[in-house]
Write a structure and sequence with these properties.
The structure is a single chain. Helices cover 45% and strands 0% of the residues. The protein has one domain (1-99). Residues 92-99 have low confidence and may be disordered. It is elongated and about 40 Å long. The longest helix is centred in the N-terminal third of the chain and has 19 residues, at 21-39. It has helices at 7-16, 21-39, 47-62. By secondary structure, the protein is mainly α.
Length: 99
């Protein structure tokens, strides 16, 4: 990422139009591609849906609707311990606490 920032700074830069949600997403996807082979921290991705959401956020901001978006709109995030999310099936289960 060219300019790593915290989530508040990233959100503010997207809302102000300084950066686009799409550009921020692509920076994060590139970082995942670069770092994940060693870390193996990201096991399930839906880049298509993430790009679709980022483009919708960018369109809303371009139309003057930044105030209608949530405070962290456009800030990429990872979800630990994935579970069934829409069309993506879960494929990782922690079984340490089965009864």
């Amino acid at each position: 990422m060219a300019n790593p920032a915290n989530a508040l700074e990233t959100a503010a830069s997207i809302r102000s139009g300084e950066r686009t949600a799409t550009a921020v997403l692509e920076e994060h996807l590139d970082a995942i591609d670069r770092l994940n082979p060693e870390l193996n921290a990201v096991c399930l991705r839906d880049d298509e849906q993430a790009r679709s959401h980022a483009e919708a956020i960018d369109a809303e901001i371009a139309a003057g609707g930044a105030e209608r978006l949530g405070p962290f709109a456009g800030v990429p995030m990872l979800i630990k311990d994935p579970q069934r999310r829409g069309r993506l099936a879960d494929h990782v289960r922690f079984t340490g606490h089965e009864r």
